Amino acid sequence: MHGGQHPRLKRGQLRIVEPVVVDCNINVIRAGDYCMLKPDIWERQLGLGWTDNLCISCIESRLGRNLKFLDFACPVSVEGFPPSDILVQRLGLVRQKRKRRRTAKR
To answer: Over the chain, what is the mean pLDDT?
Structure first.
């Protein structure tokens, strides 16, 4: 689009990059699978670079095992895009349940 403006964004809003998975072509941010693995795994074991992206399922498929907490370099979050259930599980976190609003009885 002319001038670098995105059609759905108002002036001053940031555009979320659309990182597409090398293997399955999904957007890792929208899927909630955006993560940073330790360089030993990402670069040496998977042979990937900084611009490559993989979802959790594709990473585990390539590694031949489930990810574990110690595989991650650091926790990463993207505002407005919650982590997937599988990422939360692999990080060893517990997803908080939303509290229901209590309505006053009349």
So the answer is: 83
pTM above 0.85, yes or no: no
Closest CA to 83 of 73, 94, 68: 94
Are the beta carbons of 41 and 71 closer than 8 angstroms? yes
| Helix-, strand-, coil-residue percentages of the chain, each rounded to 5 | 30, 10, 60
Please give the pLDDT value at position 94. 78
Using CA atoms, how far apart are residues 90 and 3, in angstroms rounded to an integer? Answer: 41
Q: Phi-psi bin for 33: left (phi > 0), alpha (psi -120 to 50), beta?
A: alpha
Amino acid identity of residue 77, one-letter, is S
Encoding tokens for residue 72? Answer: 């991650």
